[in-house]
């Protein structure tokens, strides 16, 4: 096929993927690579990296080879492309000999637009020879940070991918990742021979994610309220630090009537896989997980990520929260944290057998995480600043923007708290110290004769909750540290001196009262019952089509497309084709099925009728 007969990028975008316009950086990458250039692309999760190589794969002649580290991701991508009418296949260890043979035949016969390939498979001499015999459109190396030995996802095979450049110097190559930091970027460029390639660096802002950080009082109750108010039936991820907490939380959510499943390294492989499958394929499943969960899951409609424990670093926080809202629709990143978290993470660090240099780096990361939590400025500005990106205005979509925190001069209270630590011998944790300060009578206080200390009851002006907040912040800001005795005892640090001597003051954040009045409105989708029923009916139809084909519902259509159906109420094929996410193949395949649901004045199709009987409002928006 001659070059001139290849389609234009804009036509591919529209006809195959159903989108009107490229995102800013995406358009530039596509143009550059379509014209044969090499590229290094850094874009956040959900930024639209896939189209950066999928579109050039179709505008250029020959087959595009995509290196991808995870079988699950590969399958997902291939099935999504096939849904859109693209000739795509994958080669990895999950295929049997017969399947491999078929893919290879298709490849040699020029019947593939895209071939996804595991790195070890690509590097086998046989595969390289095969590729030498065909017309190649480009090489895309996805999750390119796997080449970095410093990251968590290091894959030794990735180091050998430099062979691509040696064997196929004329074929354009692009590497893509959502990892932002300079060091990783440098390593990718060096190891994959992309120093002279054009670098495309996107903003790492995820504007559709609302960041909320709240002091931990009663974590479960707080989670329960958050879910009830904002995500009564959405899919999401709840992160906890320990396996035990994962199991307990999943159990508890189940008892609350939620479809919640645990995920951690202590579960049998089969169970983990089953739970992950349920999360991907069913609507509204909550996964409760340790950090082990997430990589290799591209589910676009995760509506919330909740942290019940503090992540170790802002990198981890950004990565984990980034799993929410890949589809660009509003999503919540919600976290509660308390002095227990600070104590625990500090202690883990102290006990760690890592080399000092490493410990120092980790300690700094934890400090940054804590400063973020206790900060009073816009969360998004803080988060982006950490990744060296400037956001000029406060975002208006985080807790500190929505509910600006008040601060107070806590010098006096801080002195009381620190004296109390000192007078009790630096051997007690927050709970006991708060008892002493508030003058709470109890056996333990009496046994220890702490009711005779000068600090006993001097803090009655503040509630126990306020004192916990003070201790949390003193810990976070480094006035206090945690003893490595395993009991969470607090000790003073050097930083206390000027404060105790009356030479320094301290301003703390006032923890917000309950926010019950103002349930954050995440742009609820449904204005009335009829709209809601239409939404449910569309989802039911999508689910049925997905089950028939054994694919996750989002591969039929994303929520964004269903939402556009609800808003625009298309009645004809032409109107249907204009929806975002509806390309030519999907229009042909699914147009009828959804138009059926959409017609009939919002009435329900028989299979999903649940006895609604609500008259259509006829509201078109
Ligand atoms: P990434 O790989 O960077 O995490 P994806 O390639 O999965 O992101 O894209 C994220 C989401 O954005 C997907 O739902 C995709 O369909 C959507 N998307 C990508 N590009 C566009 C575009 N130009 N217009 C509309 N939606 C887009
Ligand atoms: Zn903000």
Strand tally: 17
CATH-wise, what's the superfamily of the largest domain?
Answer: P-loop containing nucleotide triphosphate hydrolases
Looking at the overall shape, the CATH architecture of the largest domain is 3-Layer(aba) Sandwich
Helicity range: 40-55%
What is the radius of gyration computed over CA atoms, rounded to a whole number of angstroms? 28 Å
Mean pLDDT: 89
Give the neighbour order of strands across the main sheet.
Answer: 3-4-2-5-6-1-7
Number of discrete domains? 4
CATH topology of the largest domain: Rossmann fold
Q: What is the makeup of the main sheet?
A: 7 strands, parallel
Structural class based on helices, strands and sheet pairing: alpha/beta
Heterogens? adenosine-5'-diphosphate, zinc ion
Shape: globular
Q: Explain this structure to me?
A:
With about 625 residues, this protein is α/β, with parallel strands linked by helices. The chain folds into four domains: about 10-200, P-loop containing nucleotide triphosphate hydrolases (Rossmann fold, 3-Layer(aba) Sandwich); about 210-405, Rossmann fold (3-Layer(aba) Sandwich); about 420-505, Winged helix-like DNA-binding domain superfamily/Winged helix DNA-binding domain (Arc Repressor Mutant, subunit A, Orthogonal Bundle), CATH 1.10.10.10; about 530-600, HRDC domain (DNA polymerase, domain 1, Orthogonal Bundle), CATH 1.10.150. The protein has 28 helices and 17 strands. The strands form four sheets. A seven-stranded parallel beta sheet has the order 3-4-2-5-6-1-7, sandwiched between helices. β12 (about 305), α14 and β13 (about 330-335) form a beta-alpha-beta unit. α15 packs antiparallel against α16. The protein starts with 8 loop residues before the first helix and ends in a 23-residue tail after the last helix. The protein binds adenosine-5'-diphosphate and zinc ion.
């Amino acid at each position: 096929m001659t070059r001139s007969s290849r389609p234009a990028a804009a036509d591919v975008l529209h006809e195959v993927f159903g989108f009107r316009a490229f995102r800013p950086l995406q358009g530039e990458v596509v143009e550059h690579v379509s014209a044969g250039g090499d590229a290094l692309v850094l874009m956040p999760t959900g930024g639209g990296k896939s189209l950066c190589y999928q579109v050039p794969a179709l505008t250029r002649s020959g087959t595009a080879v995509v290196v991808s580290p995870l079988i699950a991701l590969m399958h997902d991508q291939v099935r999504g492309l096939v849904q859109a009418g693209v000739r795509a296949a994958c080669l990895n260890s999950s295929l049997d000999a017969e399947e491999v043979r078929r893919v290879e035949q298709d490849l040699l016969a020029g019947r593939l637009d895209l071939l996804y390939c595991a790195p070890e498979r690509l590097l086998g001499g046989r595969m390289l020879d095969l590729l030498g015999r065909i017309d190649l459109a480009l090489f895309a190396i996805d999750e390119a940070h796997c080449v970095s030995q410093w990251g968590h996802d290091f894959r030794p095979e990735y180091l050998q991918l430099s062979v691509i450049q040696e064997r196929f110097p004329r074929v354009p190559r692009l590497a893509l990742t959502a990892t932002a930091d300079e060091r990783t970027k440098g390593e990718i460029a060096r190891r994959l021979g992309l120093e002279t390639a054009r670098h495309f660096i996107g903003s790492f802002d995820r504007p559709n994610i609302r960041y909320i950080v709240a002091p931990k009082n009663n974590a479960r109750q707080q989670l329960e309220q958050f879910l009830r108010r904002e995500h009564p039936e959405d899919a999401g991820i709840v992160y906890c630090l320990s396996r035990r907490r994962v199991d307990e939380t999943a159990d508890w959510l189940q008892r609350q009537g939620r479809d919640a499943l645990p995920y951690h390294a202590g579960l049998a492989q089969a169970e983990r896989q089953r739970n992950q499958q349920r999360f991907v394929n069913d609507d509204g499943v909550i996964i409760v997980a340790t950090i082990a969960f997430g990589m290799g899951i591209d589910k676009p409609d995760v509506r919330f990520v909740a942290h019940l424990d503090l992540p170790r670093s802002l990198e981890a926080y950004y990565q984990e929260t980034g799993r929410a809202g890949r589809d660009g629709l509003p999503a919540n990143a919600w976290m509660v944290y308390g002095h227990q978290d600070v104590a625990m993470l500090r202690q883990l660090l102290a006990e760690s057998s890592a080399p000092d240099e490493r410990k120092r780096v980790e300690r700094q990361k934890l400090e940054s995480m804590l400063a973020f939590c206790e900060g009073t400025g816009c969360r998004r500005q803080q988060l982006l600043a950490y990744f060296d990106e400037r956001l000029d205005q406060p975002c208006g979509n985080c807790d500190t923007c929505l509910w600006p925190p008040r601060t107070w001069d806590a010098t006096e209270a801080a002195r009381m708290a620190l004296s109390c630590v000192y007078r009790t011998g630096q051997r007690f944790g927050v709970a006991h110290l708060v008892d002493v300060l508030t003058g709470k009578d109890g056996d333990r206080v009496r046994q220890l004769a702490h009711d005779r200390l000068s600090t006993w009851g001097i803090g009655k002006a503040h509630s126990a909750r306020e004192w916990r907040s003070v201790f949390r912040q003193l810990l976070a800001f480094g006035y206090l540290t945690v003893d490595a005795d395993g009991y969470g005892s607090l000790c003073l640090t050097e930083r206390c001196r000027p404060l105790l001597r009356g030479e320094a003051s301290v301003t703390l954040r006032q923890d917000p009262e309950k926010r019950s009045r103002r349930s954050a409105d995440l742009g609820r989708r449904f204005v009335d019952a009829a709209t809601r029923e239409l939404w449910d009916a569309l989802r039911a139809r999508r689910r049925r089509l997905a089950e028939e084909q054994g694919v996750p519902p989002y591969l039929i259509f994303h929520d964004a497309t269903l939402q556009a159906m609800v808003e625009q109420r298309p009645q004809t094929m032409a109107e249907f084709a204009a929806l975002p996410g509806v390309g030519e193949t999907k229009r042909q395949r699914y147009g009828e099925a959804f138009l059926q649901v959409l017609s009939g004045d919002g009435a329900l199709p028989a299979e999903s009728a649940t006895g609604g009987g609500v008259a259509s409002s006829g509201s078109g928006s």
